[in-house]
Amino acid sequence: MTKFAEARSYADPDAAARKLIEIAHSIEPVQDGRIHIEKINWPFLDDLRGSPAEYGAGIDRAVANGWLSMHESGTYVTFTQTGIDLFT
Fold first, then answer.
1. How far apart, in whole angstroms, are the C-alpha atoms of residue 36 and residue 85?
2. Which DSSP string corresponds to 38-75?
3. What are the pLDDT digits (tens) for 48-63?
4. What structural domains does the chain harbor?
5. Does 8 score more than 90 pLDDT?
6. Residue 65: is it exposed, middle or buried by C-beta count within 10 angstroms (0-12/13-18/19+)?
7. Which residues contact 34 (CB under 8 A, 6 or more apart)?
């Protein structure tokens, strides 16, 4: 009998991006609207059991979609106006 791998919820970068912005939206931003990246990646990787590859693809997609802006240091993100508009 062949066993198949279970479908992963966040294998689709769009699904991962949507979940990541939901997580980011639930975080209280600090100085200048900054959301520290560990506040997003820990829940995704640990609580939701997303993989590092799914996380990376999701963050990349959220940035490419114009929902989040990643600081060049990679330590925090901020919502763009497009990202904010998703929740209004």
1. 20
2. HHHHHIIIIIS---HHHHHHHHHHHHHTTSEEE-TTSS
3. 999 999 999 999 999 9
4. 13-85 (1.10.10.10)
5. no
6. middle
7. 71, 76, 77, 78
48 and 19 Cβ atoms separated by less than 8 Å: yes
Q: Could you report the per-residue pLDDT of 14-33, keeping only the tens digit for each?
A: 999 999 999 999 999 999 99
Look-up: residue for tokens 């240091």? 73
Burial zone of 55 (CB within 10 Å; 0-12 exposed, 13-18 middle, 19+ buried): buried
What is the residue type of 53?
A: A
- Total-model pTM: 0.89
